[in-house]
């Protein structure tokens, strides 16, 4: 009962993690008009948010050892909730930049903490379902924002609403803190089977010397480059290139996150039959197919299907990569390596999408599908090379 209750709490925490992640791409078209900013100014917000997440991910291993996963998750949720409320009252673009920092710090802490905890203590299907609940948050966020914009004709009420939801989830996390202590005492019965994990790999002070680590970091780097880019620029691509309304574009981007969510829910069952490495490969092929469809002059309703297909393809990649980390590099090194993987993932999400924003401003947003295809190809090559280097 303790394990089930804690799993529910962890899933709720990942909903809170996903809620803010898709908001900027949906609201930026309205924000930039209100503040008189250029299209690519969203890139600086992304850099600050994700840069803060990177710093948080690198430091998170030491923070968790000091305070524990439960407390770190609770405090992170409080920080992000306050930041979201602050954004809803922001009088200018400058304040958005300032509040992007605590938003990123909170996200990085909870992301790394819960990923490592689930990788060590639960099986692959739980990791897929964990990230499915991130998708629930990322899908519900734009839906809430779209409805708030329809009702009030303002993005501010949407940020305020999601900020309040975040703080309510933080209260639930606070009340659950005793469960983490109890679960640690029962962890021997819940931990992943030892034969599935490389327990002989000694602790490395410099994990970059472990065979295949650099390819793992590259895979995460380009994965988040793709995921963040669709979230940040997908709405602008639909509006400015495909001539779709702001409200419809917001709903269709929500469907992209819905594809990730549904894909991860289904992946949880598929992992009973197919290995993590096979899931990663299949997902990349599906994501590539969806990106290729964006290049074709399809009817408007078919574009939503393309975004959903990209989401379905991306769905298993991240959770399966995370869950494979203890198997590939040893559970003694998993906390540090997962922290680095999360950091490199967010570095990719912080810098590559803004670079495309600059490219789109100088040339055209019509390059968006070609850019996605290039990133997915590099991710695929990195992942396949990693598999070769870490065959057990």
From TrEMBL:
Where does this protein chiefly localize?
Answer: membrane
- Superkingdom of origin: Bacteria
Lipid bilayer topology = Multi-pass membrane protein
Q: Which UniProt keywords apply?
A: Membrane, Transmembrane, Transmembrane helix, Transport
| One example GO MF annotation | transmembrane transporter activity
Q: Which Pfam families match?
A: MFS_1
One GO CC term, this protein? plasma membrane
Spell out where the chain crosses the membrane.
Answer: 41-60, 72-89, 95-120, 132-152, 158-181, 215-234, 254-272, 302-322, 334-356, 368-388
Q: Which InterPro entries does the record match to this protein? A: MFS (IPR011701), MFS_dom (IPR020846), MFS_trans_sf (IPR036259), MFS_Transporter (IPR051788)
Q: Where in the cell is it found?
A: Cell membrane
* Listed name of the protein: MFS transporter
Origin organism is Vallitalea longa
